[in-house]
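Quarterly update from the structural biology core.
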Amino acid sequence: MEPPHSVRTFFKIALVAVSTAIVALLGLPASAAPVPSDLVTVSGVVFTPHNVPVVGSVDCPSGYRMVGSAADQALLTAIAPNATFTGAIVSGFARDLPPNNFITMTVICAPQSRFTDVVVVQAADHRFRPGDFAHSLAKCPAGYYAFGGGGYFRKGTGPFRGSTADNVSNAPSADGTKWTFAGTMPSDTDTMMIITQCAPKTGKDFLVQFGNVSTSPTTKVGSFVNCPSGYTAIAGGYYISNPDGSEARPGTIQVSKPLLNGWAVSGLAPANTKMVALAQCLTP
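Predicted structure, tokenized:
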């Protein structure tokens, strides 16, 4: 069920046109799924003093769009696409002391020609107040799957802000048709933004997930999920889950990144909850 008081806008990524009506996008030819040789992975680092939050970005090569984003060596507070979907913005704290006090940021990129019929869904959720544990989602139109999404906080149209704690969700949903995001709202923000890219389901997408159970809130737990043979992981993310499927907290994410042909996540989670890794997989 879609949360109340959230605003969803639909628009097609194109050179000149923006549409606010999903019906205007119907009848478009389906774009081809990327093959492994199409994908380009770009990484960068951003340095930060110990215990000081930082915001950094990493971009795809010219002619490519961002289809997945990741980060490592961090205490993550947010990851989201940039405004043109040609890269990603990451916020967090460096996990290690100098000289390793940096966050590694990664984007998975595919040629723009492989995604000619992408719909973007942006949810601006105003239900929460500073200090609240905020959690919501951006939902693709019927018949579409979600990829390359993310979430963050802002005030009005102000700058990108990460959560102050408990960024325990930033991933495609279990059914692959939504993007979830959760975290504690910062004091100088009034809106939680969740964004996802969506492409038509043509029987070639497959969402995989797996979660190891945390034994202690002070013991790091990690999970890895791999795409089936013949499929390629284009995006992924993390979700710390209670037994009933709701977001569990307190929790921190230190790693969310592509690994082999799947996705790996790790961090701290309450005892008897799951650290879930999710990957959106496509086959040509």
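The two ends are 32 Å apart (CA to CA).
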